[in-house]
Amino acid sequence: MNKIIFFLLVSSLFFGQKTEVIDLSKSIKDSKSTIKTFTVIDQRPNKDIGSILFHKEQVNIIFENDATKDISNWFYKYNTVKGSEELVLLLENLNISEDIKEKYSIGKLELKASTFIKKNDGYYFVNKIDTVATVSSRNTPYLAQSLSKKITLSLADLLKDSYNKRTWEFGISESELANYNSILIDKLDVLKSDSLKEGVYKDSYSFFTHNPEPGFTIETNKKGVVTRAVKGEDKKYISNFYAFIHNGVPFKVIPVGYVEIFRDDQGLFIEVKKEELFPESNSPFIMVGGGIGGLVGSLVANVAIAAIDSKAAQKRRGMPGTYVSLDPLTGNYILPEDFGKSK
Fold first, then answer.
1. Beta-bridge mates of residue 100
2. Same domain, 141 and 218
3. Could you give the C-alpha distances from 33 to 37, 101, 127, 163, in angstroms and in order?
4. Is residue 301 part of a domain?
5. Is 163 in the same domain as 86?
6. Residue 318: CB partners within 8 Å, gap ≥ 6?
7. Under a CB-based contact definition with an 8 Å cutoff, are residues 89 and 115 in contact?
8. Are 185 and 265 in contact (CB under 8 A)?
9. Burial category of 220 from C-beta neighbours within 10 Å (exposed 0-12, middle 13-18, buried 19 and up)
10. Which long-range CB contacts under 8 A does 214-220 form with residues at least 24 apart?
């Protein structure tokens, strides 16, 4: 009798739970066929992803088999032509949780993964994603399905961006993969050097490895605002670069101009407004004289903007600003949770 009761309890618990299988059907084809082999390393200590309540029933988000097998099968489904590179995906964190409010709930996805090219002497970093995404039941009742889709889209973007992304020159061993972030960051001279190399940097990799474009000199206008970089007859607007260092001061190029880069014991960061990183057509900042150096929008260099347009400077000071960190491995912005929100 006790066995029957136990069986009924377990059965009711089992049938009270549903599953949302992560749909890995989006194309992740490597159009240039650069990859020869693909391997997934799942280093998550807990392989469970999480669950969401739907009509008082628990919906578990799962892989059909497991992360290693399913993501690997996904890659080979769309990539049958072999290249020469050995791509490795390191799955570091994948977690879904739910914050239940009085009349609605918010589903939260935390995803961290990175890619490497495996060579005979070690693993070479390529790309990574470290993101937090939220979905409210006010917008969709199907939180589990929505978050599951975000997993697929995020992993697809990571892989497709990795196919042609520049591979780092610093190799690490397989035993160092778990700590690759701190190991690689420790190799970056720009984070600790007291003397920064003058010039322009075409991308985040060249900036963080401290290798400016050879032969280019920086030009300014009569007001001291940096407008372009020149190498003989080759003249490029400053908007074509990731960052530049002028008179010993580093600056980050953003959509509406540039801002100074600061450094502390945590790394590099900029002080910037949301409207400047993600400008809209109705932005209050309009460049004077049709724009400087071909940039569209406003000047945001701390001193230059006041020299050009005092009204624009006043508007900028009135907007809530936030410290935004720069990811040294990808160059991406690390946005705080309160980014752009009024104090």
1. 105
2. no
3. 11, 47, 18, 9
4. yes
5. yes
6. none
7. yes
8. no
9. middle
10. 218/244, 218/246, 220/246
Each residue's pLDDT tens digit, 9-30: 444 444 456 999 999 999 999 9
* Angle, CA of 169, 175 and 178, to the nearest 5°: 80
Please name the residue ranges forming H helices in the chain. 2-15, 67-78, 143-162, 180-185, 204-208, 274-277, 304-308, 310-317
pLDDT digits (tens, 9 = 90+) for 253-271: 998 889 999 988 888 999 9
Q: Which of 26, 59, 63, 60 is nearest to 44 (CA)?
A: 63
Exposed/middle/buried for residue 180 (C-beta within 10 Å: 0-12, 13-18, 19+): buried
Q: What is the torsion angle, in degrees rounded to the nearest 10, for the CA atoms of residue 68, residue 120, residue 328 and residue 148?
A: -10
pLDDT per residue over 48-90, tens digit each? 999 998 888 899 999 999 999 999 999 999 998 788 999 999 9
User: What single-letter DSSP state applies at residue 197?
Assistant: P
Q: Which residues of 58-88 are buried (b: 16+ CB within 10 A; e: fewer)?
A: ebbbbbeeebbebbbebbeeebeeeeebbbb
Give me the sign of the Cα torsion angle 197, 200, 202, 208: positive
Q: What CA–CA distance (Å, rounded) separates 201 from 210?
A: 8
Helix (H, G, I), strand (E, B), or coil: what is residue 160? Answer: helix
Angle at 111 between CA 52 and CA 78, to 5 degrees: 100
**Total domains present in the chain:** 2
Do residues 142 and 38 share a domain? yes
Phi/psi at 35 (5° precision) = -100, 130
Amino acid identity for residue 174 in this structure:
E
Residue 87 tokens read as 């791509």
User: Do 68 and 126 belong to one domain?
Assistant: yes
Between residues 310 and 191, the one the model is more confident about: 191
Specify which residues 124 forms β-bridges with: 117, 171
> What is the token pair recorded at 343?
């104090």
